[in-house]
Design goal:
With about 300 residues, the protein is of the alpha/beta class. Helix content is about 40%, strand content about 20%. The protein has 2 domains: about 40-135 and about 245-295, Periplasmic binding protein-like II (D-Maltodextrin-Binding Protein, domain 2), CATH 3.40.190; about 140-240, 3-Layer(aba) Sandwich (D-Maltodextrin-Binding Protein, domain 2), CATH 3.40.190.10. Strands 1, 4, 5, 6, 7 and 15 form a 6-stranded mixed beta sheet that branches. Strands 10-9-11-8-12 form a 5-stranded mixed beta sheet, sandwiched between helices.
Length: about 300
């Protein structure tokens, strides 16, 4: 009889324990795991905190740290103006290699990419873009005198001894592949400064970047490199390419993207916008015109 009583008591304790665990699980689930934000949208989260975490690659003039360590550039300064209209008064930069920006966004390291990233159909499959903030062409950085005479991607293709440097994950890597430049003629770098140093050291013959990046790096080089003259933009599928830069968001953050995009559209092209981006080399000629994220994603 004593053994039966002990067995019954043990079964009751196990049952009560299971019920308690289930109840605790329901409480945690309903409370969002204790964080208080799991049930709220990203837009609600950043508006409540008043801070937006942005991922950027250290590439002037799009997004970079100045000599005082402040995050600046075309994308961060536009972001500050637009986010302020949304009640978000501060941005926090997360320095990331360009090729890791999309994985970093998807992993939740930050909630927006502010790096002047081009809208490309293959990227649109992974993230959602705002409408573009600019549209520009390309350029090469070469040694003084341009010893190899490289003024286009086709020139690199036509000279098997020429080597071209590009940044990992940047659109120029895709341009080189589309033109047909063999992989052994293309060297990939984590960022623009390291590629320019390779040009100076003679490890590569040219670095391919956007026209604004190229000009900015040349201006800072004190004559150690130059911009290739009479440069011809790459021709892909019969058309001369032009890049359109924008902000990136996770696909599930549609509310955040749409709210930001609405404020952005009202801002781009205004006197305030043009004055903000002028120090970074952008002018009215670089405005995106009628281009939209939807049209560029489906191009």
């Amino acid at each position: 009889m004593t053994s039966l009583f002990r067995l019954f008591k043990r079964i009751r304790l196990i049952g009560f324990g299971a019920i308690a665990l289930v109840t605790l699980g329901l409480i945690v689930a309903c409370s969002g795991g204790g964080g208080g934000t799991a049930t709220g949208s990203t837009l609600e989260k950043v508006q409540s905190a008043g801070v937006m975490k942005v991922g950027y690659a250290n590439e002037a003039p799009y997004a970079y740290q100045d000599d005082s360590g402040n995050l600046t550039g075309e994308a961060p300064e536009i972001a500050r103006a637009v986010l302020e209209d949304m009640g978000i008064t501060e941005i926090e930069g997360v320095l990331t290699e360009f090729g890791s920006l999309i994985p970093g966004l998807q992993a939740g390291r930050f909630d927006m990419i502010a790096a002047g990233m081009y809208i490309r159909p293959e990227r649109c499959e992974q993230i959602a873009f705002s409408d573009p903030t600019y549209g520009i062409g390309e350029g090469f950085i070469v040694k003084p005198g341009n010893p190899m005479g490289l003024a286009s991607y086709q020139d690199v293709l036509d000279n098997p001894d020429a080597t071209l440097g590009v940044v990992a994950g940047a659109v120029e890597q895709g341009y080189a592949e589309a033109v047909g430049i063999p992989a052994n003629q293309v060297e990939i770098f984590p960022d623009a400064p390291s590629a320019v140093e390779a040009v100076k050291a003679g490890r590569i013959d040219a670095y391919g970047g956007t026209s604004l990046t190229v000009q900015d790096m040349v201006d800072k080089s004190q004559g150690s490199v130059e911009r290739a003259k009479d440069f011809e933009d790459p021709v892909i599928d019969g058309e001369s390419v032009k890049g359109y830069g924008a902000f990136g968001f996770r696909k599930e953050d549609e509310e955040l993207r749409n709210t930001f995009n609405e404020a952005l559209t009202s801002y781009i092209g205004t006197p305030e916008h043009l004055e903000t981006v002028r120090p970074f080399g952008f002018t009215e000629a670089d405005l995106p015109g009628d281009a939209t994220a939807a049209s560029l994603c489906s191009a």
